């Protein structure tokens, strides 16, 4: 991106800080699969010619992630709307915290 002048260093860093930088501390890499939907992750892997047995087993059991309240994580029977509302509030809280500490500016 830099070599092709598609974006400046500041633009690239801001994009990462305001997307992955906010999301990963809240849901992490594995839990993000629960929010994608393990059935979708399973279908994508199969369409690319491979299967992830751990995910295929969860899908076979009906544990599809947040939409079924169980995936890699157990969401205590809460609805998908409740689970995503809590996740989204945490994203907003993280964004507010990072803005407060001026995390999006240069050091």
Show the helix and strand layout:
Elements: H1 9-17, H2 20-36, H3 38-47, H4 53-60, H5 80-100
Helices, by number, come to: 5
**DSSP helix fraction:** 55-70%
Ranges where pLDDT stays below 50 over 5 or more residues in a row are: none
pLDDT averaged residue by residue: 96
Per DSSP, what share of the residues sits in E-state strands of 2 or more residues? under 5%
Outline:
The chain has 107 residues and is mainly α. It has a single domain, classed as N-(1-d-carboxylethyl)-l-norvaline Dehydrogenase, domain 2, CATH 1.10.1040.
What does this structure look like?
The protein is mainly α. Helices cover 61% and strands 0% of the residues. The protein is built from five helices and no strands. It has helices at 9-17, 20-36, 38-47, 53-60, 80-100. Helix 3 packs across helix 4. The chain starts with 8 loop residues before the first helix and ends in a 7-residue tail after the last helix.
């Amino acid at each position: 991106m830099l070599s092709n002048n598609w974006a400046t260093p500041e633009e690239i860093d801001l994009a990462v800080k305001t997307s992955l930088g906010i999301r990963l501390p809240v849901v992490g890499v594995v839990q993000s699969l629960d929010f994608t939907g393990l059935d979708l992750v399973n279908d994508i892997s199969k369409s690319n010619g491979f299967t992830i047995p751990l995910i295929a087993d969860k899908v076979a059991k009906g544990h599809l992630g947040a939409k079924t309240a169980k995936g890699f994580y157990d969401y205590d029977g809460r609805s998908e709307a409740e689970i995503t509302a809590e996740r989204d509030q945490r994203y907003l809280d993280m964004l507010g915290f990072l803005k407060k500490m001026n995390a999006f500016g240069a050091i």
